[in-house]
Amino acid sequence: MEKLKVIIADDHPIVLLGVRELVERDPRFCVVGEAVCSKGLIELLEQQPVDIVISDYNMPADSPYGDGLKLVDYLKRHYPHVQILILTMISNHLILTRLQELGVVGVIQKNQLHTEIELALNAIARQSTYQSLEPAKTSVIDSNTAIDERVASLSPKEFEILRLFVAGKSVSDIARSQSRSAKTISAQKISAMRKLEVSSDQDLLTYCLERSIFN
């Protein structure tokens, strides 16, 4: 039986090593390439046919292919026969639902990687999709928080940057569209996050999507 060829993409070397070891324990799969950014991932896909891509949802922002939903959409359009398995720490159900709509074969929460990777690989080998374990529901917003006041404190530029980021664009994408440097966009994004009192991209997505701030 011919092994299914796998490419792994993640910007953390320890994760790459761990995923490779987990995949190669299964004799049905063979890791044929590793990438630390989406640009490297696309270059590998252009070099050889593969069956499966296992990719982190959040990747470095300096790639023309972006990350997150933008990268998945690109992969599905240009490599429709490749099965995509996403690794993420994001638990927002709207993002997870959109990934399923785009046609990924499964989503694995990184904190459950060792538990789930074998289950996901078994599903892929059976030409089925994998339903990840339900992530814990989280909310970064206290019910008594003055959300409107926080949003009103954003400058017009900060508001627009967050709108584009939540829509799936990377910092470098936003910088190009605004004809500004990625450093400037990143600084304004961080400033906006402080005003909203969130400390991570996951919390930012949860804050904006749960409260429909950009709807």
Automatic annotation (TrEMBL):
Residues with the 4-aspartylphosphate modification: D56
HTH luxR-type domain: residues covered: 147-212
Record domain Response regulatory: where: 5-125
Keywords: DNA-binding, Phosphoprotein
GO MF annotation terms: DNA binding
CDD domains found in the cross-reference section: LuxR_C_like, REC_NarL-like
InterPro entries: CheY-like_superfamily, EvgA-like, NreC/VraR/RcsB-like_REC, Sig_transdc_resp-reg_C-effctor, Sig_transdc_resp-reg_receiver, Tscrpt_reg_LuxR_C, WH-like_DNA-bd_sf
GO BP, sorted A to Z: phosphorelay signal transduction system; regulation of DNA-templated transcription
Protein name listed in UniProt: Two component LuxR family transcriptional regulator
Organismal lineage: Bacteria, Pseudomonadati, Pseudomonadota, Gammaproteobacteria, Pseudomonadales
